[in-house]
Amino acid sequence: MAIEPDAKTGVHHHGALESVIYIVSGKARMRWGERLEYVAEAGPGDFIFVPPYVPHQEINASTDEPLHCVLVRSDNEAVVVNLPDVDPVERPESVYWVDPIHKHPKGTDRA
């Protein structure tokens, strides 16, 4: 699928379904949590896993490039539960994958 530059979804979840997003090209930003209090970005070759019932918002993090990705879910049923009453936090906490191979982007080894 192709997502236009700077586009984003509303806050939602997919019920009991698990979702996996594979990034082909571009940069994805995912916000999640009860108030979208967490944020992480993914680029080409990265996967994003969305557990059941987790409120989230997908965002094309680029203002001028489309985001190309492949989306699969644990069932063919189209389940989207929109959550219009969520009041997102202003500045979400950045979450990074940090291990001996993947260093923290700010140059430290903190997890």
Automatic annotation (TrEMBL):
<dbReference type="InterPro" id="IPR014710">
    <property type="entry name" value="RmlC-like_jellyroll"/>
</dbReference>
<protein>
    <submittedName>
        <fullName>Putative RmlC-like cupin family protein</fullName>
    </submittedName>
</protein>
<dbReference type="Pfam" id="PF07883">
    <property type="entry name" value="Cupin_2"/>
</dbReference>
<feature type="domain" description="Cupin type-2">
    <location>
        <begin position="1"/>
        <end position="72"/>
    </location>
</feature>
<dbReference type="InterPro" id="IPR052535">
    <property type="entry name" value="Bacilysin_H2HPP_isomerase"/>
</dbReference>
<dbReference type="InterPro" id="IPR011051">
    <property type="entry name" value="RmlC_Cupin_sf"/>
</dbReference>
<dbReference type="InterPro" id="IPR013096">
    <property type="entry name" value="Cupin_2"/>
</dbReference>
